[in-house]
Amino acid sequence: MIPYGFDGINWPIWRDFLGTYAQASRSRSLLGRSLFLVMLDGVPPPDPPLADVGLAVSDWDGVLDDVDLLLFASEHMRDRGLHPLQRSLFATTVARVAAWDFETAAALAGEDDRTIMNPVELLRAVAHDRCWTTDTPLDWQLGTASRAGLAHPARAALDNPSSDLCRRLWSAQLAVLLPWIEERRHEIVSSNLFEVKRQMRAAGDGQGDPFALELGELFTLFLRRGADRRVRKTVGRLRDVRNELAHRRHLPFQKVESLIEKVLL
Prior knowledge:
The protein has 265 residues and is mainly α. It contains 12 helices and no strands.
């Protein structure tokens, strides 16, 4: 049973009832007890009930985390006809940028791909609607920060440049694209194993492990005479993206879009 309609007047009555009921319920088996779930919203009462054998008190501060938002964003994008890599990248970006604010995550998830990957203007509009400026301090009570001090994305977007927002965008791309790039590297070596070994022998490294070659080394091999130019271009694109991410720089939307079109689709 979930009773409603609590306020400052009737709460003391309910508080006393719940305490008394908890005492009385001890004599009954767990399956024979009624269960009351009382939800209090707003400023906590000055005299909350104390947890007891038959009474549990749980605090919830309304703060989600990026795992909750990742699940939400991924489900929200299910019907957009995206490749799994795109869906993962966009959903992870929404979750990392929004961090803990569900309203921001919902707003971002409903936008197009370009806005998700470059959300500065959208977030600044959110900050404007909330009357936040660069002078607005990071404070949990103002809504501009989490309890742990993490800036609200709209507040972070007001900084110029916004290093915090850039870091969130970069971390999302790193989490999704770096493992995918490594898988593509392995697939390229496997699909072109004869050619890779031939070029390794020509370069004086006939005993090396082809699958241990990094993207830069592969690119150098495919620069040699007789190598497949198409594969070289693919390796070059993957290498450039890997290098950008390794230097803690997030990719602009155009580069991500080009990578997906040229390598994935």
